[in-house]
Amino acid sequence: MKELSDCRILIVDDVRANVQLLAEALRDEYKVSFALDGEAALKAVDSLKPDLILLDIVMPGLDGYAVLQRLRSAEPTRELPVMFLSSLEDVSNKARGFELGANDYLTKPFELLEVKARVKSLLKAKSYADAVKAALERDLSIAKEIQLGILPTDPSECARGTALDVAAILESAQQVGGDLFLTLRTAPEKVLVAVGDVSGKGVPASLFMAVTMTLLRSLATEGTEPAAILERLNRHLSGQNPRGMFVTLSCALFDLTEMTVTLASAGHPSPVLLSPGRAAEMPFPTTGTVCGLFPRSPYGQTSRPFQPGDCLVFYSDGVSEAFSPEDEEFGYERLMETVDGHRDQDAKGITAEVLSAVREHAAGRKQSDDITVLAVRHMIEGTAS
Length: 385
Fold this sequence. Notes:
The chain is α/β, with parallel strands linked by helices and 385 residues long.
């Protein structure tokens, strides 16, 4: 936990005498900086990263209320402790300060002993909260490593020595998430892939994802068809599911002897299919409900040719439902245009281009959902290395 003597206090007041008075009272116990107006205060916050702000309200330019609004609207300073020190003593002024997110409010003239006591209390609370947050971040970092360890380390390994080229990208919206993918060689000339999306986000979704991955890998190694895998997976997940969580899944089996792909879907959207000389399409219907909610749900499957030059691109709804700053969805049409526009690239190139297009569409907007893209291409010449 951070020592209080290492904490920095930013004093913001346009009256130099007030700044000097507070600085002399606090500098023996804390690091002290100051600003004489609102704009200077915001710049100081960016550069100094204070642990507490003592903020006047009545100032030229940006007043204290405006400064606090700016701080609370920015992610890095949303929880930065702020105490108003103001000559405004009306109850409505204090109420407005607390409504905007102030942690404390003292009216001038104030007793320095009371200021010091409240400063110490706020800094101790922040130091404790920061320590708890840091411990949680460490735990989540370990959880992320464990979760990533459940996923295939090298998605292309399952297709080594075959004519298939496989690549995948997964980026969680939080440190841990609910998206998943599986790539598995089930026979010398058969490769199974699956892409899924667990309901919700964060730790609950990641735990359900881990259970789903364990069951899915176990069921896939038995060599059954995709529809049978989903049926058995659904029975297992719905058997003990007190929170009512679920997962959408697209499960596909590539048969290189028959040159076909057989796909079953549990509430997951159709992957995008590229074939030489044809526009991108989404040919696979959703053949069943999500896994985890209804134990007796039936699942069908669809088979179609998968010839040299074909490519199938799977994704989670973090792709199709990515939003721009103007709240416009990335959408399926833009997804198909992106895939179609990069049809000559290998599997890794296509997944990278889809992710890049989503990032460009979002234009810096914070990622709200996990993003997964997986591509399987049937190489035209020879076999994949």
